[in-house]
Amino acid sequence: MRTTVRPTLATPMSETTTEVPVSTGIDPSKIGQLANQGASDDRGREVVFDVEGLSVSYSGALALADVSLEIRKNYVTAFIGPSGCGKSTFIRCFNRMNDLIPGAVVDGTILYHGRDLYGSNVDPVEVRRRIGMVFQKPNPFPKSIYDNIAFGPRVLKMNKGLDERVERALRHAALWDEVKDRLSENALGLSGGQQQRLCIARAVAVEPDVILMDEPASALDPISTSRIEDLIHELKREYTIVIVTHNMQQAARVADMTAFFSVELREDGSGRHGILVEHDQTTKIFTNPSDRRTEDYVTGRFG
């Protein structure tokens, strides 16, 4: 299955068991403190993404191999792991951003609410409306605060009640009270933390189902990072959230579920590629992982 642009989404679409809790340097009582405490039983929650045997290569070079997992509704799922293990490559598969990279090939299956995300009748543009994305570095448009939020709805002809939509999006991003009297000002005049929350507001303005976040706080100061984490906690009431982070403490604070990725050398010694090692409840990943490689990573032995 190749990442070529396709025609329209017309309808919605264990290796070693560790018996003793590991020491991660993270207070176990704080793990998942912002996450849903009911995460101990997720079987009743709707599956939003069902990934089976997903592999990604760039110009013939394997980057990520044979990933299978489920992401459930209104959970925060964090992807952690060392640099180069394929976390960002994987998250970009969920809204088909890899389609835009020449030479990118995606094999395997991603079902979104039971529908093949890479099916022949699926429009990538519609996919990206339903599955929004916030990037590592804030990227507001060189427009007014208002026009940044209104941009997506205008493109998608969602013009009815535009003022209310802009206000609602800014409130969702916990930014309204800070900017309500300066909506006509250039968004580039906002602080870094405000710009990132503006980008989150821009994503929710088109009423997505899922929000993808690729290291959304890595370029922010601790206070702005804390606000983003609080916002993630609020947003998951209405949205399913997937986040890539290099900050294990952040994953422990905000995620209900955590997936640990690592790297594996190819048999012929020609290079390495990313693999999924373990996917489980955040508390288990950080205190009693099933795989020794996960334990080594969360305890700081490597990575």
Relevant terms:
303 residues, Rossmann fold, six-stranded mixed β-sheet, 10 strands, 24% strand, globular
Description:
It is built from 10 helices and 10 strands. It starts with 46 loop residues before the first strand and ends in a 5-residue tail after the last helix. It has a domain at 28-140 and 207-298: 3-Layer(aba) Sandwich (Rossmann fold), CATH 3.40.50. The radius of gyration is 19 Å and the shape is globular. Helix 4 (162-172) packs across helix 6 (192-204). Strand 1 (47-58) and strand 2 (61-72) form a beta hairpin. The model is unreliable at 1-8, 10-20 and 32-40 (pLDDT under 50). It is an alpha/beta fold and 303 residues long. It has helices at 87-93, 124-130, 145-155, 162-172, 176-179, 192-204, 222-235, 248-254, 282-287, 292-298, and strands at 47-58, 61-72, 76-80, 104-112, 115-116, 131-134, 210-214, 240-244, 257-265, 272-281. Strands 6-7-8-3-9-10 form a 6-stranded mixed sheet, sandwiched between helices. A 4-stranded antiparallel sheet has the order 2-1-4-5, with helices on one face. The longest helix has 14 residues, at 222-235. It is 29% helix and 24% strand.
Summed up, what is this model?
Helix content is 29%, strand content 24%. With 303 residues, it is of the alpha/beta class.
CATH architecture assignment of the domain at 28-140 and 207-298: 3-Layer(aba) Sandwich
Strand content: 15-25%
Q: Please state the structural category.
A: alpha/beta
Main sheet properties:
6 strands, mixed
